[in-house]
Amino acid sequence: MTLGLLALQFLLCAALIGVAGTVLCQNAGRIAQATGLTGGRCSPTLRRCMAARPLPPWW
Q1: What is the phi-psi region of residue 55: left when phi exceeds 0, alpha when psi lies from -120 to 50, beta otherwise?
Q2: What pTM was estimated for this model as a whole?
Q3: What phi and psi, each to the nearest 5 degrees, are found at residue 20?
Q4: Which of 4, 23, 42, 46 could disulfide-link 37, Cβ–Cβ 3.0 to 4.6 Å?
Q5: What pLDDT, on the 0 to 100 scale, is given for residue 8?
Q6: Rounded CA gap, 7 and 15, in Å?
Q7: SS3 string of 38-57?
Q8: CB atoms within 10 A of CB 52
Q9: Is 36 left (phi over 0), alpha (psi -120 to 50) or beta?
Q10: Does residue 28 lie within any of the structural domains?
Q11: pLDDT score for 21
Q12: Which domain holds residue 29?
């Protein structure tokens, strides 16, 4: 792989993580209310779920 392709993949992944984190933060209040968790418990739980996701098949 060339350096340019690696940089493109890195930037794409960083953008996807940024979008997912923004959406998660925007919806954390609704998720906490629907599940009965407090906001302080909901955010770390959701972050752990996101961090535990397997790598995409193209890795």
Answers
A1: beta
A2: 0.55
A3: -65, -40
A4: 42
A5: 93
A6: 12
A7: CHHHHHHHHHHHHHCCCCCC
A8: 7
A9: left
A10: yes
A11: 76
A12: 24-49
Residue 19 included in any domain:
no
Structure tokens at 55: 């790598």
Place of tokens 């779920």: 49
Question: DSSP secondary-structure letter at 31?
Answer: H
Instruction: Find tokens 């993949």 and name the residue.
Output: 9
Given the structure tokens 């996101």, which residue do they identify? 50
Q: How many independent structural domains does the chain possess?
A: 1
Please tell me the distance from the alpha carbon of residue 11 to that of residue 33, in angstroms, as a whole number. 34
Q: Buried (b) or exposed (e) across 27-47, using 16+ Cβ within 10 A?
A: ebeeebeeeeeeeeebbeebe
pLDDT at 58 over 70: no
Residue 40 is assigned to a structural domain of this protein: yes
The sign of the dihedral angle between the CA atoms of 16, 18, 19, 24 is positive
